[in-house]
User: Which sequence fits this backbone?
């Protein structure tokens, strides 16, 4: 069943896109991450231009995060105050990110920038996750490691604007969650990912938030950063294809339900090792594409002068 | 293979009428040396669009060769060349071409070089090698011809430029027809279909027929909305996604 995508200006097989959405949705339900980091490269592989892939992903992630937050909300595992502070930082981040995106698009470097950001972010996070989860597997202990915290401790505590977060039982500088939110916002705009796999460890290790509240709260603020990104990408870069987003989210929502159920059957350390392996291999693949000599050194952009 | 079956009775009647008119004119005054028309003057890109074929048919007033050139709307194209910087491949040098047809195919009844000389092809821009695409400034590195070749290669990969010459078929001595294929990625806009009648190595007469490629229906409305009111479009996309997520969450809670 072929469907014409009005913004991507191409015809795709609707069933392939639905299946792709379902697969990524399943993995995101299984591991509790957004899955955007898998979807964007897959869309580019299908022939969707990187800029449309990223803009559309942001739109699709809104729906995924809303349905995810609903489940957490019922369990009461969302720290709304923390989420709002992160969101404020996130708004700054997304605005900056969309602006950078537009600049790079006009310079003709956006494809390279997207790939490079993917390689760096996924490579670093994936390796850290892999090391940590393998250690946890060996020790068969709770994943509450203490790495990566001490050297930040001193100056982070010196930050002003201290704020009390009753739900998380924290008294910390508001700049810290806002800063994390801002970094997440830039990633949403440039990579088309929710940034959950970056936000979650940052919230655990930098903010020392209770682990039970982390997933719901990060999803809560991802709703807002992805919504603002969608709005800005549509308004400034015109790279949001609602038809493609619809197909992805239908597949994604269904897949996520099965993934969440499967996730309950699998041990946390195994799930995280698996996720880390996937993240590292995606980064590896993209790194190879950057380093290997391309089949055609030339690329063509029509319509945009300069 | 049969364009008759594909386009149905209307086409048959139309073709017969055109052919009849041509014959009448040819007998009367030989004023019209060449008459040609398309099976359709509008390609409608709907939600289910997967590419389409348009039949060009026509008649000449006697023996001669026919070349058909289909040119899409001309735009600017930026060709960039990657080079290795610090181990990774980065777009470095670029050439901007003006007046690049977004679509370009040529069909003839026999190989071009057998019946027409290069200067004539040059003048009428028949064939990819004779296509005029101007560049304001020379490339910062490498040869301009490399960039030009890359541009053509990329368009050919996308199915927008013909890789080989299409075939014009003569039915008898005067009636001819050819099938022009447009892929799913065909750019929208106003196309020119030029038909050249060539005798003794020179163009005797030519006729230009317009062809409109346009999005219609839902996909057209979405595209139009996104272009004319980008902010409202974004807002609608956000609201739709929130509603969809909410709905999904509510539905799967009961399952």
Assistant:
């Amino acid at each position: 069943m072929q469907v014409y995508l009005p913004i991507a200006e191409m015809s795709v097989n609707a069933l392939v896109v639905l299946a792709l959405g379902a697969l990524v949705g399943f993995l995101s339900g299984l591991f509790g991450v957004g899955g955007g980091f898998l979807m964007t490269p897959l869309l580019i592989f299908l022939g969707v231009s990187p800029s449309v892939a990223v803009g559309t992903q942001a739109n699709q992630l809104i729906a995924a995060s809303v349905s995810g937050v609903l489940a957490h909300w019922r369990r009461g595992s969302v720290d709304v105050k923390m989420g709002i502070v992160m969101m404020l930082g996130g708004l700054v981040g997304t605005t900056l990110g969309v602006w950078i995106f537009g600049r790079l698009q006009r310079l003709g470097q956006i494809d390279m920038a997207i790939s490079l950001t993917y390689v760096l972010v996924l490579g670093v996070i994936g390796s850290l996750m892999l090391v940590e989860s393998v250690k946890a597997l060996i020790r068969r202990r709770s994943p509450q490691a203490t790495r990566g915290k001490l050297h930040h401790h001193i100056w982070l505590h010196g930050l002003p604007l201290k704020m009390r977060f009753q739900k998380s039982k924290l008294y910390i500088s508001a700049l810290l969650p806002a800063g994390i939110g801002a970094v997440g916002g830039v990633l949403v705009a440039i990579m088309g990912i929710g940034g959950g796999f970056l936000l979650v460890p940052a919230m655990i290790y930098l903010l020392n938030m209770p682990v039970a509240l982390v997933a719901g709260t990060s999803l809560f603020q991802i709703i807002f950063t992805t919504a603002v990104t969608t709005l800005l990408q549509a308004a400034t870069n015109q790279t949001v294809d609602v038809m493609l987003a619809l197909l992805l989210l239908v597949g994604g929502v269904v897949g996520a339900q099965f993934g969440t159920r499967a996730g309950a059957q699998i041990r946390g350390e195994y799930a995280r090792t698996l996720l880390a392996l996937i993240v590292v291999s995606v980064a590896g693949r993209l790194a190879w594409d950057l380093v290997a000599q391309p089949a055609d050194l030339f690329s063509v952009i029509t319509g945009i002068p300069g | 293979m049969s364009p008759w079956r594909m386009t149905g009775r209307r086409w048959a009647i139309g073709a017969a009428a055109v052919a009849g008119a041509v014959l009448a004119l040819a007998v009367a005054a030989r004023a019209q040396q060449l008459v040609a028309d398309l099976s359709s003057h509008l390609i409608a890109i709907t939600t289910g669009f997967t590419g389409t074929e348009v039949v060009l048919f026509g008649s000449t007033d006697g023996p001669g060769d026919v070349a058909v050139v289909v040119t899409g709307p001309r735009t600017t194209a930026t060709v960039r060349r990657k080079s290795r910087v610090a181990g990774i491949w980065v777009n470095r040098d670029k050439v901007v071409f003006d007046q690049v047809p977004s679509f370009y195919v040529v069909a003839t009844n026999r190989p071009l070089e057998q019946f027409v000389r290069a200067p004539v092809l040059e003048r009428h821009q028949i064939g990819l090698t004779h296509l005029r695409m101007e560049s304001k400034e020379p490339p910062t590195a490498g040869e301009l011809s490399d960039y030009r070749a890359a541009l053509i290669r990329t368009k050919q990969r996308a199915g927008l430029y013909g890789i080989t010459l299409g075939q014009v078929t003569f039915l008898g001595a005067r009636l001819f027809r050819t099938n022009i294929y447009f892929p799913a990625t065909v750019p929208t806009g106003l196309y020119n279909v030029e038909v050249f009648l060539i005798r003794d190595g020179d163009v005797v007469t030519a006729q230009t027929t317009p062809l409109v490629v346009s999005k219609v229906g839902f996909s057209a409305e979405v595209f139009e909305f996104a272009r004319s009111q980008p902010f409202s479009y974004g807002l609608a996309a956000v609201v739709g996604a929130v509603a969809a997520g909410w709905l999904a969450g509510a539905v799967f809670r009961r399952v």
The longest helix of chain B spans residues 3-28. Residues 3-215 of chain B form a domain with the Immunoglobulin-like fold (CATH 2.60.40.1930). Chain B has five helices and 13 strands.
